[in-house]
Amino acid sequence: MKTRIPAALFVLVILASCASVATGKEKKEPEPPVPIGWVHLPAGTASFSVIGPSRRKVTHELPRGLELPVYKSEEKHGTTLAQVKALNFKTGTMETGWVQVKPSDIQPVSAYPLDSDLLKTLGAPYLDDFTAGHTNIVRYLVRQPHGSPALLCYLLTAPLSLAKLVIFTSQQGKLLPGGMLNFVVGEMQPGITSLEVRDLVGDGSDCVISKEPFREQAETYGANIVIRQIADGDFSTLWKAPTEYHNLSEYSPKMQILQPPEKNIGAPGTVTKGEVTYRAQGSGQEPVWKGKVDFFVLGREKPLDTVNIEKACAWDGMKFEPLKK
Predict the structure, then answer these.
(1) 79, 161, 194, 221: which is deepest, by most CB within 10 A?
(2) Helix, strand, or coil here: 64?
(3) SS3 of 62, please?
């Protein structure tokens, strides 16, 4: 037997729903929590503990140089734990977890502007409520060659395919935006996939090291490691090299291996894969690229030939030696 809803009652329910929307009583998203302080991780950490999808505790690494918002602190067995939020570059989402700190490491919340205050200084489109509410911000402290450290922020607004690196420097007692870099965000090109701060030059300033995917054609794509320095509130590129470079959109009519071997990186009909490490050199560190270039011909799945490469790129006082000349 079916239960019939009286027509008059049905009309009342509809009217009540409409009245609720009209008077602005619809359910609103909860306001984001406000941090109680900040903590700087100049060396990063390997013990960022979060609750994974299976409700099990998972430990992640956090990159060097992060300045994280702190929401709680607890003492356990003589150890101070801080609850923080950090961006997962693989998923583009913020994760809440715990890191071990010293009580003196936690700075007061007044030390830096809140995310909402930083967004206001950037103007459109971040003044829009939807954009501001869906923008994840990750912060880094970066020492400059001169002056106080800069606050470097990576802003990711995934729903609108927006990504931006912004330098904030102190001007007349306020943190205001300076140099900016925009990045392409999409299903095939996710902005920046890693970002860290290292002292490479040895002059007391920091370098910003990012991994940035690129796509030129359907079969021409990869990712670059880019080393930049911040000076006078702007970016200066010191080095750039691919860790992955697929160039199979075209093929050379005749396979030719060039010398020195790093000249083959990115050549038509090749796939390059490598990694970058850093080794001490003088008072600083220099990037070392190690990898291989596979040569392909049209219609053949396996490489016809392979060249192995290892090259250290020395500091010349202004920039690091290019991987390819």
Answers:
(1) 221
(2) coil
(3) strand
Q: Rounded CA gap, 243 and 292, in Å?
A: 10
Cis peptide before 260 (omega within 30 of 0): yes
The alpha carbon of 41 is separated from its chain's Cα centroid by a whole number of angstroms, namely: 15
Alpha helix positions (H), the chain: 7-22, 115-122, 129-133
Distance CA 95, CA 92 (A): 10
Tell me the whole-structure pTM to 2 decimals.
0.88
The edge-to-edge listing of strands for the beta sheet with 234-247 is 194-198, 207-217, 220-231, 234-247, 270-281, 284-295, 305-312
Report the distance separating Cα 29 and Cα 26, nearest Å: 10
pLDDT tens figures, 248-281: 999 988 889 999 999 999 999 999 999 999 999 9
Percentage of the chain surpassing pLDDT 70?
A: 89
Nearest 5°: phi and psi at 135? -105, 120
